[in-house]
């Protein structure tokens, strides 16, 4: 039996984005404020024997 499901992936608006500095592991510290909006993509997931991205 295959289990499959679909989820919305909502868009967002970045009201503010500040780069605070670089961390020791090479990534950056961020300060951000997000707002979701009703616009979205639909992502479907299904069990498979292989990995396939489209």
Task: Tell me what you see in this structure.
- The protein is an all-beta fold.
- It has one domain (4-46).
- It contains no helices and two strands.
- A hairpin with a 5-residue loop joins strand 1 (4-22) and strand 2 (28-46).
- It is flat.
- The mean pLDDT is 91.
Which key features would you list for this structure?
two-stranded antiparallel sheet; 70% strand; 2 strands; mainly beta
Detail the poorly predicted runs: none
How many E-type strands?
A: 2
Number of helices: 0
* Residue-averaged pLDDT: 91
Classify the secondary structure makeup into a structural class: mainly beta
Fraction in beta strands? over 45%
Helix content: under 10%
How does the major sheet shape up? 2 strands, antiparallel
Rg, Å, rounded? 17 Å
| Overall tally of structural domains | 1
Element layout with pairings:
Blueprint: E1 4-22, E2 28-46
Antiparallel strand pairs: 1-2
Summarize the structure.
The chain contains no helices and two strands. It has strands spanning 4-22, 28-46.
């Amino acid at each position: 039996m295959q289990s499959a499901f679909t989820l919305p992936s909502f868009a967002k608006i970045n009201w503010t984005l500040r780069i605070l500095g670089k961390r020791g592991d090479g990534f950056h510290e961020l300060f951000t404020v997000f707002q979701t909006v009703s616009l979205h993509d639909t992502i479907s997931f299904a069990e498979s024997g292989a990995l396939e991205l489209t």
